[in-house]
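Design a sequence for this backbone.
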């Protein structure tokens, strides 16, 4: 169950919100997307370091910083599979795929 919660939090907070916002701002050409990704990584890194220093590591933050891939909800695949994210157990509501992590250091 913890792995499913980590996956969903990583997707909704990290991919859907944070990386989605960075992508939208970058698309305006008002700011370089790479700069925003570096800034986000720095902020997440400081947060992770403070949590580790307190002996309270944060798994989702670690995934966002270190995982080479991140979970991403595949809406079309979910629909093609005949799934409804509002029905059924959490583990089988939606299809998730792995995408390259733009926050990870290459």
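Sequence:
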């Amino acid at each position: 169950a913890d792995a499913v919660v980590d996956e969903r939090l990583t997707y909704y907070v990290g991919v859907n919100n944070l990386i989605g916002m960075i992508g939208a701002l970058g698309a305006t050409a008002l700011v370089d997307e790479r700069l925003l990704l570096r800034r986000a990584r720095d902020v997440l890194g400081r947060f992770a370091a403070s949590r580790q220093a307190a002996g309270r590591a944060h798994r989702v933050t670690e995934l966002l910083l270190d995982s080479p891939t991140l979970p991403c909800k595949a809406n079309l695949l979910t629909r093609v599979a005949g799934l409804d994210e509002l029905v059924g157990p959490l583990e089988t509501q939606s299809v998730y795929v792995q995408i390259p992590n733009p926050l990870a250091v290459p």
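Residues 2-27 form the longest helix (26 residues).
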